[in-house]
Here is the input.
Amino acid sequence: MKIGILDYNMGNLASVKNAFKKIGANAEIVNDADKIKYYDKLILPGVGAFGDAIEHLKDTGMDEAITQFAKSGKYLLGVCLGMQLLFESSEEFGAYKGLGLIEGKIVYFDKKRVGEHKVPHMGWNKLFNKKSPLFEKLDNPYLYFVHSLHAVCDEKYVIGKTIYGYEFVSAVNKENVFGFQPHPEKSHDEGLMILKNFVNLGA
Here is the structure.
């Protein structure tokens, strides 16, 4: 099985690659849009601003390559900014269109509703999960978060929620496309189990 980690200049790829190495999976970093189709599974990581990320994906043709990859039925996992890019739009520093693989939008935390909590949401928090193959052997895991925005979407796509002043969507799934707001690769054993379950999809 070939697992690709997408390099589009938006994140620390080494920690993602090392996490797959820990679970005995060989994942390669790919930065060529033409090569994406040759992988069996794809990870879309990311740290930074939505606008910069989507612009780089468009400039390199990776946006279309990712879309075609998802349409082919192969498994795709977006993490943190990578999850946010899966949606139709984001209001981060303006208004930007996303990949549109999942219907919904990315919005800032409502500072009135988070109360005394600081934004960005940073640190360990519980993800209350629904039944999903990615949560095999897990029950409401504690995972590591770093973000100022979150997804708003139809409940049918939601496989996990987290509370930070108020409840927000922290994990999604539409057919073969998955998204996690927290960082599984930084979340020790429970995070590694999520990645292991992703590797085992379709096996």
Observations:
- The chain has one domain: 3-200.
- The radius of gyration is 16 Å.
- The longest strand covers residues 166-174.
